[in-house]
Amino acid sequence: MEKFFKLKENGTDVKTEILAGITTFFTMAYIIFVNPTILADAGMDKGAVMIATCIAAFIGTMLMGLLANLPFALAPGMGLNAYFAYTIVIQMGYSWQAALAAVFLSGIIFIVLSVSGIREGIIKALPFTLKKAIGGGIGLFIALIGLLSTGIIVADPATTVAFGEFNQPVVILTLISLVITIVLVVKNVKGALLIGMIVATLLGYAAQSIGIDVGIAATSSGSASLTPTLFKFVEGFGDLFNASQGFGVLLFSIISILISLTMVDMFDTIGTLIGAASKGNLLDKDGNLPNASKALLADAIATSVGAALGTSTTTTFVESSAGIAQGGKTGLTACTTAVLFLVSIFAAPLLGFIPSYATYMVLIVVGIMMMSPIKEIDWENLEEAIPAFFTLVIMPFAYSIADGIAFGCISYCIVKTACKKTKEIHPAMWIICVLFIIRYIIPYINIV
Length: 448
What we know:
Helices cover 67% and strands 3% of the residues. The protein is built from 19 helices and four strands. Helix 9 packs antiparallel against helix 10. The longest helix has 33 residues, at 247-279.
């Protein structure tokens, strides 16, 4: 392990890496149950999707660890699964098999971009200020996920968001667990996040045992067969390229789907890699991620493999930040998480007993930890501050990492152009901006 993962060279050890991998897994284990629930709305077999989710996460995460030697975990992404089910299938009327075919094609596009070096070039093209803002933006984004999911923050018709009801058992347990975890973190206790999750779980069962309902219940893993979804994407090509609806409609529909899948996954992945790596001091002196091309290739392969198995786009998870914050620095962290995803196929009923607030509570703490890179942004220089600001605030407000990066990139080009400093803009940034603008415009183009 020392020779392969270069543990000493990266300032870590086996115990730290394994603990980090376990932390990452438990922080993102919710996807094992959430993803099948969402894709079931598109008509897919829930049990088959659960197995596909676990295997896709295992393959993608293991590739990340072995190819890139980086501590990132992959799984079918939130947001992308909703786009799959509610937009491509329900709204646009495609079959779920056609949606899988689209995901498979986007994976092939990812692979071509990764092998050609274009995807890595995009990372290098992003200016320093955006790289730092992305880290902070993701911190705000995942903290908001944690706050909303635990009920500390709720939707409000008058103010959009507001404090939740602090007399609710889940909110009370979350706050108690949050305080305990924060104390452990500031005391530099090893495994603080994992310990905090365990404490939160135990508190939940203690409350449940005395009659206080905190919503803990085993989640059924459904059927135990992958057959209903395995290689069904092949059947979907006919539906995806069905010209009976008119060539114009077909063309724009496919372009819209592929651009959305490609752009969202690409920039969610890039954002996660840069943001989490920045917090974990994994970037080199130029702000670039070592082995980025291999990391992106692992992500790309996982997308196509996931589609073949029967799940929506597999992408690098922002929850990897939890393991990185726990000290994970090498591929051993990823490999540990991967093995746990594989084992979870058989242990899924047990994972259903982990209360969701226990994992969402950790996201709040990780969000705090991820804010430190923004101190390196020159906030006195508006040329740097404006794109950084949009990157930071759009991620949580639009509930999308990709949209935050889009607004950051577009505003950066606008500001630099206004200041007559176009020479400072990397050529790839113009291409990125145009693609983002196309992505936003296409859904509003009506084809008669």
